[in-house]
């Protein structure tokens, strides 16, 4: 295999990896506070859930940078993908706020491992005259994954909410009317209630 073809193959695999790992992000950003509230989390705990990802990311990346220089790229790429997989599994299986914190912790570790490793590999392999383009391609695949994952997620929630007289919490989220501007909140959404978080309107 020629060097050019090998480089193209590796970069294409990186694009696919980032696309797949980015699929859940949009739904997580929207649904995580609602799910946490339904599980009984306080406003402070919900803020902590959103902050722990960034804090772990900041703490992990200097260590990852040192490791990339001394131990190579592949172990960190694989560990990052594993961190994302474990995070998604915990999100899907947890029934408590503690599980949400654990999932966010794993997601932050996975992101710290994966993203820095991916950017380093791109810097290693991409031709000098295409380096900026390849960095842009990496970002594009991540945003594309977020967009497609969010659209598919909302479509599935909408389909699950149809044909039932008592929709599930996920169905209520899907049917919740979104205000065009910042909404005035009257009531929080809670499992078993029929109120939309965004507008306080009854939807069930």
Question: Can I get a quick summary?
Answer:
74% of the residues lie in helices and 0% in strands.
Q: How many angstroms separate the termini?
A: 60 Å
**What Rg, in angstroms, do the CA atoms define?**
20 Å
The helix/strand order is HHHHHHH
Q: Which architecture of the largest domain would the CATH scheme give at its second level?
A: Up-down Bundle
Count of the separate structural domains: 2
Q: Please give the number of β-strands.
A: 0
User: What is the CATH superfamily label of the largest domain?
Assistant: MFS general substrate transporter like domains
* Percentage of residues assigned to helices: over 70%
Which structural class fits the helix and strand makeup? mainly alpha
Q: Give a quick account of the main beta sheet: strands, pairing sense, barrel closure.
A: none
Amount of beta strand: under 5%
Overview of this protein structure:
This protein has 204 residues and is an all-alpha fold. The chain folds into two domains: 159 residues, Growth Hormone, Chain: A; 39 residues, no CATH class. The protein has seven helices and no strands. Helix 2 packs antiparallel against helix 3 and helix 4 runs antiparallel to helix 5. The termini are far apart.
């Amino acid at each position: 295999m020629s060097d050019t073809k090998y480089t193209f193959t590796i970069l294409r695999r990186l694009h696919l990896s980032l696309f797949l790992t980015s699929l859940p992000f949009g739904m997580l950003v929207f649904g995580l506070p609602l799910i946490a509230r339904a599980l009984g989390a306080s406003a402070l705990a919900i803020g902590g859930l959103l902050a722990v990802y960034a804090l772990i990311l900041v703490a992990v990346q200097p260590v990852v940078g040192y490791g990339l220089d001394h131990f190579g790229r592949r172990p960190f790429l694989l560990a990052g993908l594993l961190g994302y997989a474990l995070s998604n599994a915990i999100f899907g299986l947890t029934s408590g706020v503690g599980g949400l914190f654990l999932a966010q912790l794993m997601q932050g570790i996975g992101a710290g491992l994966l993203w820095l490793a991916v950017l380093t590999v791109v810097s290693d392999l991409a031709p000098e005259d295409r380096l900026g383009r390849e960095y842009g391609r990496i970002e594009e695949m991540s945003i594309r994954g977020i967009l497609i994952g969010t659209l598919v997620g909302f479509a599935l929630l909408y389909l699950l909410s149809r044909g039932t007289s008592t929709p599930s919490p996920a169905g209520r989220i899907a049917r919740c009317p979104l205000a065009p501007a910042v909404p005035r909140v009257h009531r929080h959404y809670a499992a078993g209630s029929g109120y939309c978080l965004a507008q306080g309107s009854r939807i069930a």
